[in-house]
Amino acid sequence: MANDNNPSDQLTEYVTVMLGEQLFGLPISRVQDVFMLERLTRVPLSQPEIAGVLNLRGRIVTAIDMRRRLGLPKREDGKKPMAIGIESKGESYGLLIDTVGEVLKLDENNREPNPVNLDARLARVSAGVHRLDGQLLVVLDVDRVLDMGEAIAA
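Structure tokens predicted for Chemotaxis protein CheW (154 residues):
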């Protein structure tokens, strides 16, 4: 029996991150870790958006440069990127982002489809948007972020 009085049934928690001036949200259910990047080992002949691999508590993690993946310019402030640790199909990944924000609980009924004028690079990895006070939060579809290597190379 469904309980219509429980508003939390429609809420999803998102870890918010910034890339440049754009706010993104990752479903908290997909986030394993948030960490600062330490030592990164480059991988010869890898795709340009693969920043390298790192050892995180005994696990080998593939680091993905989200700026590169989304066609954004390199960060010019000299600060080290942060990483959001996720797992997919038994593999560990670190999505390199500029900064991590807060965790937001947002009503899924308010999530909208991608606007027609959303940049095509963002639209490919977006699972919709939430309109916040003066800002657009792009919900990242983690599986699309990880599976778009062929689309970029094409």
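The mean pLDDT is 87.
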